[in-house]
């Protein structure tokens, strides 16, 4: 478990909270962090004791997305890449997942929400998917799930033109389940998780399975995205984005 992923279990209400904790980098996610997140989700799926799982971010950010410099170095795994392990774990988890979006959610910070069951956002949260601006393509089956969630017009605006939604817009378009004041956010999240953890467990699992039927298309789309995402990571466009960030300038695409 990397020090940047914190786990806390509340035994009273059998809930586990996974905190993306790298505030000095706005909680940007590295490959090692993805491996730790996958481990936590896989353990949760197998656990009989823990009945609700919360994903949140440390301090003022949910997550700023992938650590681009870390990904530019290429995968350090001989097996399944950590990010694929994470996406598989979150998209196939049979038990309820709560996302507590405490601040800006960028890139995978948005696309992972599409695989969570309840999404509560602080009123200060924002949502953006700047894949095209980074020389990349959508991932986590978001090219399929985001239009189905917020509508084609808004999805196009987000995925192509990097429209940033505030919390109220995210609620109106159906990207989040509810919005809570930032001042009482932790209390609202704890109450939501406790209620879910105290519900009849087999009923919760079966209801989630009924809601999340038809996974074949999602899995196929995720696989197509992964191929294209890997290609873009090796592209001159992505190399230009990384170079521009290091040189603190705007990227120039030919």
From TrEMBL:
Record has Coiled coil as a keyword: no
Pfam families membership: ECH_1
GO MF annotations, alphabetized: delta(3)-delta(2)-enoyl-CoA isomerase activity
InterPro entries assigned to the protein according to its UniProt record, in alphabetical order: ClpP/crotonase-like_dom_sf (IPR029045), ECH/Chromodomain_protein (IPR051053), Enoyl-CoA_hydra/iso (IPR001753)
Subcellular location: Peroxisome
Keyword set, alphabetical order: Isomerase, Peroxisome
Keyword Transmembrane assigned: no
Signal sequence annotation: none
Name of the protein: Enoyl-CoA hydratase
